[in-house]
């Protein structure tokens, strides 16, 4: 099954995520960005997405902020059985969805866990570590 991916956000964040994904993973016509602009109502985004939902495609809607206005309004899209709504996004999450084309809830849950693991505070190590040890510490 083919996936459609909609990134929704406040202002231009969604567009920036899509541009970054396409810079890394190449052009993808199945990913669209919608940003809520000042004075707009979130339902304008939800209506645009709803008009593009196809029953034979898995639809991912990724919102920038859990509990934010665009995510809250998009919850009505969950009435469609082929829609998956995810709140709180980062670039690794979007890249993994684009690159792996998940089809099952288990695959989606795995991607979410992986994206959570990609967040960490980066610190410089003090001491006399070799360059290899420094590289190993970076990726742990």
From TrEMBL:
Keywords attached to this entry: Cytoplasm, Kinase, Phosphotransferase system, Sugar transport, Transferase, Transport
Keyword Plastid annotated: no
InterPro entries: Bacterial_PTS_sugar_comp, PTS_EIIA_man-typ, PTS_EIIA_man-typ_sf, PTS_IIA_man
Superkingdom: Bacteria
Domain spans labelled PTS EIIA type-4: 2-119
CDD domains xref list: PTS_IIA_man
Localisation: Cytoplasm
Name the UniProt record assigns to this protein: PTS sugar transporter subunit IIA
Originating species: Sporolactobacillus shoreicorticis
